[in-house]
# Entry
Amino acid sequence: MKNATLNVIAFQRKLLASLVLLLTLAYLSNVYAKDTSAYAAAVSDAKIQAVLMEAYEKFKNDDGGKNADYIKELAVVDPKIFGISIVTADGKIHEVGDTTAVVSIQSISKVFTAALVMQEKGDKFLQEKIGANATGLAFNSVIAIELHGRTASNPFVNAGAIQSTSWVEAKDSKERWFKIKQNMNDYAGRKLPFNEKVYISEVNDNKSNQAISKLLDANNLMGSDPLEATTVYTKQCSVNVAAHDLGMMGATLANHGINPITQKKMLNREYVPQLLAVMATAGLYDNAGDWLYATGTPAKSGVGGGILAVVPGKLAIGIVSPPLDQYGNSVRGQKAAIYIIDKLGLNPFAQ
Ligand code: GLN
# Structure
């Protein structure tokens, strides 16, 4: 063949290759555009509102689970209470059901006191002094402490939470309680009410938590007097919250540590993913793995029936519904949150 003909063929081949490349790029950018616009649509206000309503309707008559009764006052809370609130990282609020009905925050308070300890003493302190590993055992397990070298393992079991409380810097327990309460108020963006009845009911019946605090004290892990810390911890658990409050508190974490309404900075940005990591590991205690398997989402529950799930950078879901499963996690709360996370495509592992 002549050189000229060969050149034409080579040119045609190059042209074809460029065309294929161009078409592939065009196709990919189209797919990408569709994906991102689909995602934007998935989290639009209208979509959030619709999925919220669906979740509420779907689970409002679910009568699974039972109120906690080891704290007597929790047994008499209306089991029908069911409120869901979604607060986005930029402060938009979507709510349905009994959104003003309150329950005691209980273990969800552990997140915010641990955050306060991080803020005052740093991330290493939290990890080294308290821990960031799941126990695989119940939230009030004593044997878990012995099994793990007489340490708490993480700040979301009772042991680690009482430890966190003890490490909040204060001259006495009065000031410690004041700071812990103020910290939760600031996350919620309002003065949270205190449930005296729940407090009295638990403080007169918390010998097991007292024993836990003494056990940790025997290993030099407490920052203040163990029994005093247990009392302050019991107080922090007795603060009342509505779904709305949980949504706001979680949205502060979703918004990298800044309350999206008041703009108050609560937690250093670099600590937020660490705190969320512990919520993912141990937020739902010995059921944390199953929860994560379903949602991929850091969360925290409390025996008052509250549950808080945080979708990093995007939003938080706060739910109150008192009946619990055998692990101490709200039954309707988990079902509704799993539904919402799935329908809105929010699982962080699926991004
Ligand atoms: N105040 C409760 C306790 O110490 C909190 C437990 C919880 O919510 N899981 O037992």
